[in-house]
Amino acid sequence: MTSETREISNEDGQPIAFFQFLRDTVAWRYTSADRDQVLDGNTYTAARITRGKIEQGVERKRLALTITLPSNLSVAANWRPYASGEAISITVRTVHAGEITALVDWVGRVVSAKFDGPKLTITCEPSTTRNRRPGLHRGWQRGCGHVLYSQGDGLCNVNPATHAVAATLTAVSGLNLTATAFGLFPDGRLVGGFIRWTRASDGLSERRSINAHVGSVITVDYGAADLAVSLAIGTVLPGCKHDPDDCDTYFSNGANYGGQKDMPQKNPYDGDPVQ
Q1: Order of strands across the sheet with 217-220?
Q2: Which domains does the chain show, CATH number per domain?
Q3: Cα–Cα dist 193/189, whole Å
Q4: Cβ neighbours of residue 210 under 8 Å, at least 6 residues apart?
Q5: pLDDT tens across 181-233, in order?
Q6: Does 186 sit behind a cis peptide bond, omega within 30 degrees of 0 on the bond before it?
């Protein structure tokens, strides 16, 4: 019996699902089979893992895929107690028992996770939805619309290596982090910037945005299990005010400023004949 026949058969099909979660260079692999399976040289651990129905269409909400798995699997650590600061992609493949050709059913990324006792439910969206999202339309505005440190033609192009410093945490109180290196910057200079460090447990990278900065203390957007005294933060980067003075004076990047610094204060099209 051919694979095509088994695929549409109500009785002869024996589909086995394979799930690969990938964060940076670390992968977690699971299968819905009753025992571990080897696919393309990689071992997939047997687990009580299921997925929802895969749909096609133009509505993004209907394209989401729900995957349910035990909350004690190692991949669940990416969302407990804090969600990952980096994207986690997922590839779902299916092969019928006794066959070696695995079809790729779905490719996407995790967008949310919910724990319910022994069960973890994650919601994913396909990678194609990113291409369908409207991008930021450049408007006629005084402020710069570039993402700080973005690289490429027509982008910010500030070299992050020029402004990055390292830091070691000396105190942690909730979301407030203290380090001597933070005090090297003027108050507020780090707002809008971020910190990045490498987790000692698995070598993965974590990143948190900086919401406030006074002296040697910063406030990040949300916590992480690693944020503790003596943590070595490899990268601390300042933020930007997105105005022409800050761009030119602090970053020496006036040539790449993305706003219209000479834009008039008064709207010439407001109907007022007196300008």
Answers
A1: 165-168, 232-237, 194-198, 205-214, 217-220, 176-178, 171-173
A2: 10-129 (2.40.10), 160-239 (2.40.10.170)
A3: 8
A4: 190, 191, 192, 193, 194, 195, 218, 219, 220, 221, 239
A5: 999 999 999 999 999 999 888 888 999 999 999 999 999 999 998 999 999 99
A6: no
Q: Which residues lie across from 115 on neighbouring strands?
A: 120
Alpha-helical runs (H) found in 94-251 = 128-132, 160-163, 244-249
Distance CA 65, CA 112 (A): 11
Nearest to 67 by CA among 83, 54, 85: 54
Full-model pTM: 0.74
Query: CA 258, CA 240: separation in Å to the nearest integer?
Result: 13
pLDDT band of residue 61 (cuts 50, 70, 90) is low
Strands 176-178 and 194-198: unpaired
Q: What is the dihedral of CA 74, 75, 76, 77, to 10 degrees?
A: 70
Q: What is the mean pLDDT of residues 75-80?
A: 91
By C-alpha distance, which of 199, 198, 220, 218 is closest to 209? 220
The total of other beta-carbon atoms located within 10 Å of residue 90's CB is 22
Sheet of 89-96: strands edge to edge? 37-39, 42-46, 26-31, 15-23, 89-96, 103-116, 119-126, 65-70, 50-51
